[in-house]
Amino acid sequence: MSQTEQRTAIPQHNIEARFEEPTHGPSTSSEWWRRSVIYQIYPRSFRDTTGNGIGDLPGITAELHHIAALGVDAIWLSPFFASPQKDAGYDVSDYRAVDPIFGTLEDFDALIAEANRLGVKILVDLVPNHCSNEHALFVEALASPKGSSAREHFIFRDGRGVDCQLPPNNWQSHFGGPAWTRITEPDGTPGQYYLHLFDSAQPDFNWDNPAVGDEFESVLRFWLDRGAGGFRVDVAHALIKASGLPDWDGRADGADSPGYPFADAPMFGQPAVHEVYRRWRSICEEYEGERVLCAEANVHPIESMADWVRPDEMHQSFNFPFLHTGWDHAALKAIITRSLKAFGAVNAPSTWVLSNHDVPRHATRLGATAPSPRPGDGLGPQDEQPDIVLGLARARAATLFMLGLPGGAYLYQGEELGLGDNTMLPNEHRQDPSYARTNGERLGRDGCRVPLPWDDSSSSLGFSDSAASWLPQPAEWAKLTRQAQETDPDSTLNFYRNALALRSSSQLGLGNLNWLEDTTNGQLLGFENTGVMVALNLGVEPVALPAGEVLLASSSEALSPAGPEGSAVLLNPNAAVWLRRASS
Ligand code: GLC
């Protein structure tokens, strides 16, 4: 029996369903992005059709129907542009070309055609803060003299100290080491430094130069003309730097203050950046079909992040504070309340996300039995390994809880299969620049980027027709292929399908949230949205649920009978439920 069919009448309860004041007014808008579910495809790890072990655009086109059938509104496609792949494509050498490892522009057009047929939008990942050091403009800048207009596309400065031996300021790269690299001038002398907030292969553009803005507006139109449904905008808070580039003692990777890394950073959240997005919003509005902009604006506190989604700016912004909140009743309640308030104040939806290509997957994070030795980074073979069973139970519960929230939700490829990270990845496979730039002190993000398991047709679990896989897959994934989960009613895949279908039919994304008063001493976190009670048990004891009809539980082990007569239902620890309460 599937979980949706498994409806249980619950005659008795010990939680009084008293609700607090609404924190989020109902939305009457039909704008799709207010309630969307957007699925992130990381192309190099989705599906390989050429046998080289790297996923490609034809692979996405071939399998897109599986993702559409989940019930998602749009795909966010991580970069597939021409790139030397020093940061897995976030180092773009030509914004108007498809990298040959991923295919051709015609392959992109075919993907759009298939997406249109399936009714799914494709959002392109735009990387405007920096490009690749192989981009024609940077190559030209290096070949041109100091002070030339070619150098003005980037942030070149003279060094400090004797013979300019010191970088222009003390900024650190997000991936470790200084954020400046010294060049050799065309005449062979030691020269200026250029700024790179990320890898030295990713020079930052100079957004004070209007030519840079003009170039990106043209890039925007290029992809909109080809049918892109909009853009996810990479490091959308970083484009403009404070004038004078003042020293800053914080760490750009946030390691000194996890959770609130960038509050006063001179390279993040500068007011002038908002003008850029106002122009981009108006460009999107010239096109039919509600094209959208979504910000990766990792600014704090969340009230500042809401500035990116004011009515004339972007449509959505990723909710990183929610993603970084652990298995913690008070912290979850606080960040959800704050998010709804902050985004509601600018009439924008909040978004919710648990996994992406930059953080350990939530099935791994929530199964950790010891604090991560490197917060925000992956686990490796030397670290205490996560409890996979606990991690999956909590991951499904967290997902059900998240999908019950009003606003937009983001899913990361493979979470619908219950995948965790490859935490046993041998170091010789690591490709994330942060691993090399910190001499292995940081393991980087490869663990969450491992190619997907599709079926048992090849030793790369159907990812490729060959055995090739750019990162090795964990042995236990053989049981987690999409094919293996297809017909199992209790599989994570079918759980996601049920949850997304119910979320849509109950219009939870457009609803509003009323917290359920907690009478369980911080165990049960519950709210009501559009007549559905959503409850998550973060404690260690089962909690009795109010009378009602169970619409969906996070697993077949989520519920158990309350008493010997089996007359009521308990929500077990590490589980969540959607329930329609009995009318009294
Ligand atoms: C964003 C991307 C990340 C990339 C970085 C630099 O944070 O999500 O993967 O490394 O920007 O482009």
From TrEMBL:
**From which domain of life does this come?**
Bacteria
Q: Which GO terms describe its biological process?
A: oligosaccharide catabolic process
Q: Which residues form the Glycosyl hydrolase family 13 catalytic domain?
A: 40-449
Q: Identify the species of origin.
A: Paeniglutamicibacter gangotriensis Lz1y
What family is this protein classified in? Answer: Belongs to the glycosyl hydrolase 13 family.
Protein name per UniProt:
Alpha,alpha-phosphotrehalase
InterPro entries, from UniProt? GH, GH13_cat_dom, O16G_dom_2
Tell me the PANTHER family matching this sequence. ALPHA-AMYLASE FAMILY MEMBER, NEUTRAL AND BASIC AMINO ACID TRANSPORT PROTEIN RBAT
SMART domains linked:
Aamy (SM00642)
